[in-house]
Amino acid sequence: MAKTILIVDDSASLRQVVGIALKGAGYEVIEACDGRDALSKLDGRKFHLIISDVNMPNMDGISFVKAAKQLPAYKFTPVIMLTTEAGEGKKAEGQAAGAKAWVVKPFQPAQMLAAVAKLILP
């Protein structure tokens, strides 16, 4: 059975690029347009990994990760932040919230897939 990944980004084109790369590697993909939308999708379904942007309207990525980690079903779900933010301060904030990896845009799909393969839950 395919592993499911939640992609959270306010850019539809970025969700599409990431989605194509992931689907090509055999993953199932669910999309959300911001943190609030993503939280509504954390409804007990099994997600093997979450990929989230940092800067989004309504609820930013770091607030979303903090909220997701409060939910028992998603406490251990690995999170990759995919963002234009390269600053150490933001990275530290992301790690404190529970993000396991930080991929800076623009990214190479192969680089992102390598991070996914390393972190995804069995």
TrEMBL record:
Point out residues bearing the modification 4-aspartylphosphate.
D53
Pfam families this protein is in?
A: Response_reg
Superkingdom of origin organism: Bacteria
Some GO term, biological process aspect, for this entry: which one? phosphorelay signal transduction system
**What residue stretches are annotated with the Response regulatory domain?**
4-120
Q: Which InterPro entries match?
A: Bact_response_regulator, CheY-like_superfamily, Sig_transdc_resp-reg_receiver
Keyword annotations for this protein, in alphabetical order, are: Phosphoprotein
Query: PANTHER family, from UniProt?
Result: CHEMOTAXIS TWO-COMPONENT RESPONSE REGULATOR, STRESS RESPONSE REGULATOR PROTEIN 1
Record protein name field = Two-component system chemotaxis response regulator CheY
Q: Which organism is it from?
A: Azonexus fungiphilus
